[in-house]
């Protein structure tokens, strides 16, 4: 039996997370320098893939992504189609509105055309300094549909912690129309899984390495 939880238009964390990944991974559109360090880089133009392996570090300003391997897939016109970070993936970032986020997963995938991000395997996302937190076997974030979906197995249930003050602020914002408000039944579903004492140190076991 699978546990699944979907949020629409009320959770501020996914949008900030999507913005970070878009800026970090879309190499051709970067306005700032993207620094990629790895022990080995291999490019296969015929297959349209570039692979960086061995303690891969991607840094852009204060945003950082670490993984054992990063793959970039492109089409014949060299337009990026998919980005994939594999093995011990973790990230740290500062968003434009001042939020600091950290997270980790076994694999992170960005599908360019679908504008969708998938964190697979022991996935976690935490907003530093706030209780906003997602944990599951798979976290899917879609910018076009503006939702976050968290899935897991029966042995490891989904966990979602949300700052209710953030939710109330988003719902009362003038830019949200009545049709965008969360149905009452879903609000009760959110409340039923909130943990009043979030484990804010869960991600501290895998700190990012900011050294050269």
UniProtKB/TrEMBL annotation:
GO biological process entries: lipopolysaccharide transport
Domain annotation Organic solvent tolerance-like N-terminal: ranges: 36-146
Any one GO molecular-function label of the UniProt entry: glycolipid transfer activity
InterPro entries associated with the record: LPS_export_LptA, LptA, OstA-like_N
Keywords: Periplasm, Signal, Transport
Stretches with biased composition (Basic and acidic residues): 178-204
Keyword Transport tagged: yes
Compositionally biased tracts (Low complexity): 168-177
Region annotation (Disordered) ranges: 167-212
Superkingdom of the organism of origin: Bacteria
One cellular component (GO) term of this entry: outer membrane-bounded periplasmic space
Entry-linked PANTHER family: LIPOPOLYSACCHARIDE EXPORT SYSTEM PROTEIN LPTA
NCBIfam families named in the record: outer_YhbN_LptA
Protein's UniProt name: Lipopolysaccharide transport periplasmic protein LptA
Species whose genome carries this gene: Helicobacter canis NCTC 12740
